[in-house]
Specification:
Layout: E1 3-7, E2 10-13, E3 18-25, E4 34-40, E5 47-52, E6 58-60, E7 70-75, E8 80-85, E9 94-101, E10 112-113, E11 117-122
Parallel strand pairs: 2-11
Antiparallel strand pairs: 1-3, 3-8, 4-5, 4-9, 5-6, 7-8, 9-10, 9-11
Length: 123
């Protein structure tokens, strides 16, 4: 089993920043697993945000929704992935889910999910 525990969500004003963290653990987790983030805004489907492979290779959502504002990183020694979110907008309000998958994070449905952490951006 793999456990993913997120932290760092909260309430922030538009233009502010937050950093999400996610620590992975479990008997079957391997540091070679890819890790990433999805989000789900109220009334919308879950969407891929960003992912990072063990090698450090990074993918961001194809849309311009997060590019240039969000940065994903990981610490392989700590089995932890981070999402630095800057210049936050009200449309970034969502539950953010940490995900993990073998080698590459699926953009449709990754293998492992965290419980989610709420990010609310006030305008």
């Amino acid at each position: 089993q793999v456990q993913l525990v997120e932290s760092g969500g909260g309430l922030v004003q538009a233009g502010g920043s937050l950093r999400l963290s996610c620590a992975a653990s479990g008997r079957t987790f391997s540091s070679t697993y890819a890790m990433g983030w999805f989000r789900q805004a109220p009334g919308k489907e879950r969407e891929f945000v960003a992912a990072i492979r063990w090698s450090g290779s990074i993918d961001y959502a194809d849309s311009d929704s997060v590019k240039g504002r969000f940065t994903i990183s990981r610490d392989n020694a700590k089995n932890t992935v981070y999402l630095q979110m800057n210049s936050l907008k009200s449309e970034d309000t969502a539950v953010y889910y940490c995900v993990s998958d073998k080698f590459v994070v699926s953009r449709s449905w990754p293998l492992y999910w965290g419980q989610g952490t709420q990010v609310t951006v006030s305008s």
